[in-house]
Design brief:
Number of domains: 2
Distance between the termini: 26 Å
CATH class of the largest domain: Mainly Beta
Number of helices: 1
CATH topology of the largest domain: Methylamine Dehydrogenase, Chain H
CATH superfamily of the largest domain: YVTN repeat-like/Quinoprotein amine dehydrogenase
Helix content: under 10%
Largest sheet: 9 strands, antiparallel
Amino acid sequence: MTRNHAPASATPPPGKQAATTGVPGRGGTAPGPHGTGPAPRRRRRAAVLAMLAAPLAVTALTAFPAAAASTAGPYTVTDPIPVGNYPAAVAVNPSTHTAYVANGAEQTSPPVGGDNTVKVIGGPYKPVTIGVGTNPDAVAVDPSTDTVYVANNGAQGGSNTVDTVSVINGATNTVTATLTGFDAPQAVAVDPSTHTAYVANYGTVSVISKINGTYGVTATIKTNGTPDSLAVDPSTHTLYVADPSGWGYVHVINEATNTVTATIQFDGQLNGNRFGVAVDPSTHTVYVSNQYNSNVSVISGATNKVTATIGVGSLPQAVAVDPSTHTAYVANYGDSTVSVINEATNTVTATLTGFNSPDGVAVDPTTDTAYVNSAGLLTSSDGMWQGFGVSEIWYNPPSSYPSGYHQLFAENSNLCVGLYSAPWPAGINLNNNSDPVDQYPCGGLAPASQEWRLNPVSGGYGELQNQYSGKDLVVANASTAAGAKIIQYDQNGTTNGLWKPIALGSGVWQFQNENSGQCLDVTGGSTSGGVQLDQQPCQSNPWVQFNQVFVTR
């Protein structure tokens, strides 16, 4: 099956391969009196996009940097997922595995217009495009209410525009409210434990709450500077505001009182125009990307002190954290890379390529998948697609498959992989070679018929043996064709009966057949019992359709 959001011609890598929390702020202001260096990010990015606008009509694919699928250590960068023009920011709902990409408008000379949309990718939805306000510049998600907030920085979109915030119902993909009263909103963050959104304006932070069923601005917090990026620690109800003015600051705000309780100054450093800020709520550690220094400052949430400085790529724009792996991802605009930071050691463990001026990143911590939007044009690895897109970074955890027998729970259908629906009619024998391997409601009178054990062989491959019959799960007739059916057969060590479990998360797997290179699949994405499994080309992001996602339990 073709992944529904990728270029149809894109060739996915053979296996998984994935890894949020912080949604870095957008925008920038001129450096303060102590600052030197390039112009602020938004205006610098606008100039870059102006140069890119003219070549959009060029057909030669070699004219643009390619974002080919690539692998570095345990990380895989996928082919780009097409989105709207000029993606400015990305956020993820980890509850639905859905990403939201804000496609803004850039004010250049001549003007270059974006889509003024949010592109919805992944999750239970087919790709959806939602119209929002002028120049959507930032996006954040409240996963507990499935609500998306989009900061529309109309000030950058030309004359006669209004600065607004669009509120989107994630279940229906519709705008349910459009809020006004902002001043060039350029960042947004959400505390999911209080269902409160925070929006960075010039000089203030607006607080958005839903009262009596209506969204509105319930408070305004004044800061002594220009808020540029926001991040929330929901476990302490603390808001962190990155401020690029002067030497550069991070303001610490108590959400309960809506007051600034501390301001962290970076004395003696040329840190003006800091951009990304993210928090690991499990360690209360804050990460701030410093564009002009090409580094990341690490701040203790307990002491509000800088505890470390980590060198990264050129012009780091955005940072996001995966609290499940204690990993920080930094989008480096200047050299088109993403730096991966081990939070325990404060070291860069990988530098990933395959981007073009990346300036936004978000992470789904339930799948350990990072999403990176690039300001520049991307090209698929097969050269058949070109345009603006979002690339995924998959983390291949070095964990081993669990020993013993386990159910294989199909995430797509909520059914279990087994030999026959139990209880079964009298006389049915589940011990025959070539019996189909189907999906059925979990449990029944013969639970052993739905229990499978991986018997390792070599190279990460092993036999999936059924506890009831003792036979293996194999591809019928050693076929290498897509759609070939899955059956059980005696153990004989042939490669059509060898499967590599590819970790998609803790206890979540995709299974790749050694003989065909294809993956175990719920035929047609069916949710019905009695459907025989088949093999299909491995989906580069199995979380989109879920029919190649299986849970051991």
